[in-house]
Automatic annotation (TrEMBL):
SUPFAM superfamilies for this protein: FMN-dependent nitroreductase-like
Organism: Mycobacterium fragae
Nitroreductase domain location: 10-184
Keywords: Flavoprotein, FMN, Oxidoreductase
GO molecular function per UniProt: oxidoreductase activity
Protein name: Nitroreductase
Top-level lineage group: Bacteria
């Protein structure tokens, strides 16, 4: 798969088939993940795959409780995604949140059917600088294998219980960075079209100075399949 196809079409997939992911596919995904850059090559990460039905049932219950807590925060105006980003239309933001909640509801309702949960742990992670490149590599490698997924942090609401269920040696400093739900998607891959263009979120040499190039439409697929390309601002 072309690297740009992977970059442009990897998106969060919450509606997944229950079909198991073969072990050799899982191995290729994680082998790609451990090649990710990390500070000093310290490799302070651990990836814990969960496919045991009893464990998945436990995590499904926790996930639904944690998600309810997050939406309770959201409803009272205290959640992390309550306010739109600067420059984003509030109505568009509300619609995005509505769609995300809908697909999230599906994931919550069918959590036990998710074929693979992947918990990612790290030590002294400096705000995610070491582990998030590995997580993104997981999602890109999964995309190349036809596997979709989503990264979620909501189970950190019940981190102690997660650690207990998984036997995490917290005394060594391990902390959960995220959990990924992985499986073969029911939806279709596609370029995210609902993004603000490059020139609206970028600048050059000084905040709010023009970036110098306008990108009216996504630059992938290649030129022959595009309706327009970048335009230099003079």
């Amino acid at each position: 798969m072309d690297i740009y196809e992977a970059l442009y079409t990897t998106r969060m997939m919450r509606r997944l088939h229950p079909d198991p992911i073969p072990l050799d596919t899982q191995a290729r995904i994680l082998d790609a993940a451990i090649r990710a850059p990390n500070g000093g090559n310290t490799q302070r990460w651990h990836f814990l795959a969960v496919d045991d039905p009893a464990l998945k049932h436990e995590f499904a219950q926790l996930f639904r409780q944690a998600r309810a807590l997050e939406y309770e925060k959201f409803s009272t105006g205290t959640g992390p995604m309550v306010a739109p980003a600067p420059g984003v239309d509030p109505a568009a933001h509300a619609e995005t949140m509505r769609r995300i909640k809908g697909s999230g509801n599906y994931l919550a309702d069918h959590f036990e059917e998710v074929p693979l949960l992947l918990f990612v742990f790290a030590i002294d992670d400096l705000g995610g600088a070491n582990i998030y490149p590995a997580i993104w590599s997981i999602l890109l490698a999964a995309r190349a294998e036809g596997v979709g997924g989503v990264m979620t942090l909501v189970l950190r609401n019940f981190e102690d219980r997660v650690n207990e269920l998984l036997g995490v040696p917290v005394e060594e400093g391990w902390e959960m960075s995220a959990m990924l739900t992985l499986g073969y998607p029911r939806g279709k891959w596609g370029v995210a079209a609902n993004r603000r263009p490059v020139q609206e979120v970028s600048s050059r040499n000084h905040w709010d100075s023009p970036f110098g190039v306008e990108v009216p439409e996504p630059l992938w697929p290649p030129d022959g399949e595009m309706t327009s390309g970048p335009t230099a601002v003079r």
